[in-house]
Amino acid sequence: MATSTFDTLLQKIETRAARAGIIGLGYVGLPLAIAVARSGFAVTGFDIDPGKIVALEGRRSYIDAVRNEALAAEIEAGRFRATTDFAGLAECDVIIICVPTPLTKHRDPDLSFVEATSRSIAQHLRPGQLVALESTTYPGTTDDVVKVILEGTGLKSGSDFFVGFSPEREDPGNQHYHTATIPKVVAGDGPEALALMKAFYGAAVSTVVPVSSNATAEAVKLTENIFRSVNIALVNELKTVYAAMGIDVWEVIDAAKTKPFGYMPFYPGPGLGGHCIPIDPFYLTWKSREYELPTRFIELAGEINSAMPRYVVGKLAEALDMRAGKALSRSRVLVLGLAYKKNVADIRESPSLRLIEIIEERGGRADYHDPFVTEIPPTREYQALKGRKSVALTPEAVAGYDAVLVATDHDRVDYAALAKTASLIVDTRNVFDRLGLATDHVIKA
pLDDT digits over 231-259, tens only? Predict the structure, then answer.
């Protein structure tokens, strides 16, 4: 029975007769859905947000990585459709979970989206399906949470259906790599599940990297993001130390990276943003408590990075006092860049939101300009900022602010004009020095 179910599903995948269901049509799910459709599979996208379905049916992509033309091509070819009706999961041979995995207020893993999605799948689970999780999480989630919920139906993993994990590796704004060209780590609950994962993802991406277990694959994703978190924390701490010594950390890094071995440059900033790096490390620190093992290095990195917005606002207040003779509580500040990284519209966990909050907690008034984000959408942690609109970056508008705080160095900004019109600039990205526009009224932070 197990071999027959496996062979039937494998043949469907290899002949592109399988229908794929992608649950969660956000920054991960929508690019994956289009990549899978391009490889020849029929794809159904599922999301609980009816607004997304309306946009997709109108051939309008809300994700920069998916162009409207690419979306329209797959819809018109009959390879992609989107719906809020999860009953369609029964038709899908491969089901991929791409839902958020945030933290609670106490920085514990919030698996509510994964659990709810798994229960939805369980309602429509049938023999001959492959269910894969892509959401970043702690080692053991796929086997101990997803698999357990699915087996609650009475069907068994490895015989009736198959379970796997493949961590997402999306990088918004990356012009060199996209979903189909980024190597894909895959794992499965048993050798047959792994074989199905390799066959399915191997049809849609250029390189598949199999590992021995779902827990290993889950650990791979955490390791990638912890690596970045720790190294960014290191340069953020060096920034504060070197600043006290009158040393420019960016000059130090630029010189250090000329070493052709044993060094990799990381750069400081106003804090960490994006869904992955500020959140994922805490999934491992939480899980490690089960084994009574401390994760001091990881937690220290989180503390340093989380402290950066307040450090930056402190430097802003100091600059206003020393250069303008004005208290932050009586100042108007323009935060330049709301997105967490340059040239994208992604504001998930953006430190800019925290910067605005801290400035206003201290009595100042903060507005923002971002060429990619015209209005602040609803967020879980910053509801009070919802609806604020981007200020036009005109010379008259800039002149009305006591300081401009550069939080994101978007390319769509005329920094030369800004240097001429702003009375004080606090630069957290070294953009003015990098462009040869450094002046006395530009302060690095």
Answer: 999 999 999 999 999 999 999 999 999 99
